[in-house]
Design goal:
By secondary structure, the chain is of the alpha/beta class. 35% of the residues lie in helices and 24% in strands.
């Protein structure tokens, strides 16, 4: 897995004065090579180095004089461009860069090393002081848009002016999370959802979660039936399990108390659909006969194997043949829908399941010029859920910060911003220190482990948010931040970012991604500390998939 790493947790974006420089060095590199480069520093010095790759994708590891790995850099620029490295010397001695291609099959290319800046200890102190002042200025700008989350919290009866202003005009609000497995972040999204339902008339909650599971639960969530349907348990997976259940219970309670003004929960992720796939196979046999069902069987097996792997971030690849087959099936079902409706039950469910599988196959299959991403389909499904409701309700979109963020054109949030403009508002969440649950990568049993991070690095977005208020806070400035933005808020800085996979004890930058805060989000909830969610005890072990198809 390639990791996006920020340029520096301390000096990114700073204007550095060159006090001394090494000559430019250039050397060939290909898969299987590695090269160590010494960097001699005195305690307190800071150096800024560019490792420029041309034709070969490399990563750069940074070691201190004792041989301890300090960090690893691999920017998302492929085989051409800079891997930017900054080192602030804690002790005097020879630091070392280890440069190596990311894979043994990388083609030959060249690597150039240039020292862009080398600061004396006095210059470093002055630069760090300037950076602290810039972060303080950013915090002062954010403060008028902020409200404490304690003790008032998110009580609908208590006004939160910045939030209420945005909620009054937003058609869709994205609610992000910096980790999938921290209690406070999950609790915040549930409480904010409850507030937006009762105070601001949001009537649709869309979730980065299984489309088919939530579709099966809709009669129960709406309060129409007393028990959840057979085969649709209220707990599944591990991501957001506790909070998801609390949200379900809260929305069902609202619907029971407001039968004429119901709230819907819709999953927008076309994954985790094994039960619906089995029903689709039975439908094909009933509607088209045994020959059609037999022709579908190998593709049904492939989809089931691929879909099972999504629960453990495994190999969910789909062959070109399966991708073509499900596209053909979806076309046939849509063409035959009216004629089959009178004699074959559940045609609507069959069409929706086939659509889920077609989306799944597109972003998991071999791409072509018309292929779309998972983010594309989640954004599409948010808009479709709104359009399918005759009320055209205001909606929430709950997902990871990476999906909710509005600045990146390829994210769900960026796509929604492109369609809705400022009608889409993104509110992220982050934290200063604490723990979270994530799956251990490349582990035979896909174990879930708790990791703990220290205080956020100096220079991070969290280090500025910590200055806004003494405790948890919510800042909401809205789409199109004012032109009076401080320079610091116009630049990219690291912010906590942990996905479903994480190795405990990873280098510091593994838990960060660069964000321009006021471009990626229209608001941010900050918690000084967070605690890990409980690890489910009933998680099944899913064996790694062995595929033979192309």
């Amino acid at each position: 897995m390639i990791r996006t790493v920020v340029r520096s947790l301390i000096g990114a974006g700073a204007a550095l004065t060159v006090a001394a420089a090494t000559p430019e060095a250039r050397f060939p590199m290909k898969g299987g090579d590695s090269r160590d480069w010494p960097v001699v520093l005195r305690a307190g010095q800071l150096t800024d180095i560019a490792v420029t790759q041309a034709g070969v994708d490399v990563s750069v590891e940074i070691f201190d004089p004792s041989g301890k790995l300090l960090d690893s850099v691999d920017s998302p620029n492929g085989r051409n461009g800079d891997e930017p490295v900054s080192i602030l010397a804690a002790t005097s001695g020879t630091y070392r860069l280890r440069i190596a291609p990311i894979a043994d099959d990388e083609p030959p290319g060249t690597v150039t090393i240039r020292t862009l800046a080398l600061l004396t200890p006095a210059q470093t102190r002055a630069m760090l002081d300037n950076r602290r002042q810039a972060r303080a200025e950013a915090a002062r700008w954010l403060r008028p848009f902020s409200a404490p989350l304690q003790p008032a919290g998110l009580d609908p009866a208590v006004a939160i002016a910045p939030l209420d202003r945005v909620a009054s005009f937003a058609q869709v609000i994205g609610l992000g999370e910096a980790t999938h497995g921290s209690r406070e972040l999950n609790d915040f999204r549930v409480r904010l959802s409850e507030r937006l339902i009762s105070r601001d008339h949001f009537r649709l909650i869309t979730i980065e979660d299984s489309s088919t599971r939530w579709r099966r639960l809709e009669p129960y969530v709406s309060g129409v039936v007393a028990e959840p349907p057979l085969g649709a348990p209220l707990q599944w997976g591990w991501i957001g399990r506790r909070a998801r259940y609390e949200l379900l219970v809260a929305v069902r309670a609202w619907n029971l108390g407001h039968p004429g003004d119901r709230v819907r929960i819709v999953g927008v992720d076309p994954q985790d659909s094994l039960d619906a796939q089995r029903e689709l196979s039975a439908f094909i046999a009933a509607a088209y006969g045994n020959a059609a069902a037999d022709a579908w069987k190998p593709f049904a097996r492939e989809f089931a194997e691929a879909d099972e792997q999504t629960a453990v971030f495994g190999d969910s690849g789909v062959s070109s043949a399966a991708k073509a087959a499900v596209s053909q099936l979806l076309f046939r079902l849509e063409q035959d829908r009216e004629l089959l409706a009178g004699r074959t039950p559940n045609i609507a469910n069959a069409v929706m399941t086939a659509r889920d599988l077609a989306q799944f196959a597109d972003f998991n299959g071999r791409g072509d010029e018309m292929s779309r991403s998972r983010d594309w389909y989640m954004a599409r499904n948010v808009l479709a859920a709104i359009a399918d409701d005759p009320r055209h309700p205001k909606a929430l979109y709950l997902g990871h910060n990476a999906h909710v963020a509005a600045a990146r054109p390829s994210s769900s949030g960026g796509l929604l911003r492109g369609v809705l403009g400022c009608g889409y508002q993104a509110i992220g969440t982050t934290f200063g220190a604490g723990s979270f649950v994530a799956q251990l990568p490349n582990d035979p049993t896909d174990r879930l482990l708790v990791s703990t991070l220290p205080d956020a690095a100096e220079g991070s977005i969290e280090s500025s948010l910590a200055l806004v208020a003494p405790g948890p806070s919510l800042a909401v400035w809205g789409c199109g931040a004012a032109s009076s933005l401080p320079a610091w808020l116009r630049e990219a800085h690291p912010m906590h970012w942990i996905g479903g996979l994480y190795t405990p004890g990873s280098v510091p930058s593994a838990s960060y991604r660069p964000y321009v805060l006021t471009q990626s989000f229209d608001g941010i909830a900050y918690f000084p500390t967070v605690a890990a969610e409980a690890i489910p005890s009933d998680r099944p072990v899913i064996a790694a998939r062995k595929r033979t198809q192309p």
